[in-house]
Amino acid sequence: MIPFKGKFSGIRQYMKGKPHPWGFKVWARTGISGILCDFDVYQGSVQEEKELKKQGRGSFDFRVEQTHNICAVRWYDNRAVTLLSTFDGPQPVDKITRWDKSAKHYVEVSRPSIVKTYNRFMGGIDLLDSFTAKYKFHIRSMRWYLTILWHTIILGVVNAWLQYKRDCKTLQIPEKEVMNRRHFQAQLATSLIQTNTMKRGRPSMDESRAPRAAMARSAPPPDVRRDNVGHLPMKVEKRGRCVHCKDGYTTTACIECDVRLCFNDHNNCFHQFHT
């Protein structure tokens, strides 16, 4: 659910009992790890469930789309549940026990195979929702499409972080060296802001590129250091500690990274820092 309380949208939904009852309902397809594979904004339902309700709990109906081999199953438990799959279908049907409020005892209910498979691998959506709720920057806008656009960006950040963690596990990187979501998001933002910020061509001599009085001591992210764009040495007035070797003092700095680096006959930290 994408929270939104504006009045200028025909696809806004109300879902009672949700933390954010007003907003845009989103259909999403994720893996068990929470990585988003696909999503679509819900725009209303035209399907009826009255017939299944008359047949009672455990009743179901299904349709198969032959072109793409997609099976749609609608199963009625306490309410109708609709599932789509290219992998599973209604057969085989097994029995499960459910509490009957009116009869005050447990009853057996038929359950299609696709429901059993879903229950086995469910949880990815809830995991994704918990990730998107953390470190989220809210925007206030009457333009409803900006809310969906911003939510899409957040989903991209979460997907990138989950993929990063998967790659770290594959490369057997120690867990202590793996960035958490907050640090990953901060470094991603820094990289997007600083990468390729300098114009290509001969450097100009305007005031905007003049040496600065105070230099930043924190090293930029690797994406910025190694993009091979605009990393030129310049002289500064005050000597400072090299961010690469940590022992040398120099008056040479990178015009793009905004840090001091040794650049002499004995130490070429400038080259090592950018490779």
Offer a few descriptive terms.
alpha+beta; 3 domains; three-stranded antiparallel β-sheet; 12 strands; 24% strand; elongated
How would you characterize the overall build of this protein?
This protein is of the alpha+beta class and about 280 residues long. It contains seven helices and twelve strands. It has helices spanning about 50-55, 115-120, 125-135, 145-170, 180-195, 220-225, 270-275; strands at about 1-5, 15, 20-25, 25-30, 35-40, 60-65, 70-75, 80-85, 95-100, 105-110, 235-240, 250-255. It is elongated. Keywords: Membrane, Transmembrane, Transmembrane helix. This is PiggyBac transposable element-derived protein domain-containing protein.
Radius of gyration in whole Å, from Cα?
Answer: 28 Å
Distance between the termini: 44 Å
What ranges have pLDDT less than 50 throughout 5 or more consecutive residues?
Answer: 207-216
Extended strand count:
12
- Give the amount of beta strand, in percent: 15-25%
> Helical residue percent?
25-40%
Helix and strand composition category: alpha+beta
Tell me, briefly, the overall form.
Answer: elongated
Strand line-up in the sheet with most strands: 1-3-2
- Total domains: 3
* Count, helices: 7
Q: Topology as H/E string?
A: EEEEEHEEEEEHHHHHEEH
Largest sheet: 3 strands, antiparallel
User: What is the arithmetic mean of pLDDT?
Assistant: 80
Oligomer: single chain
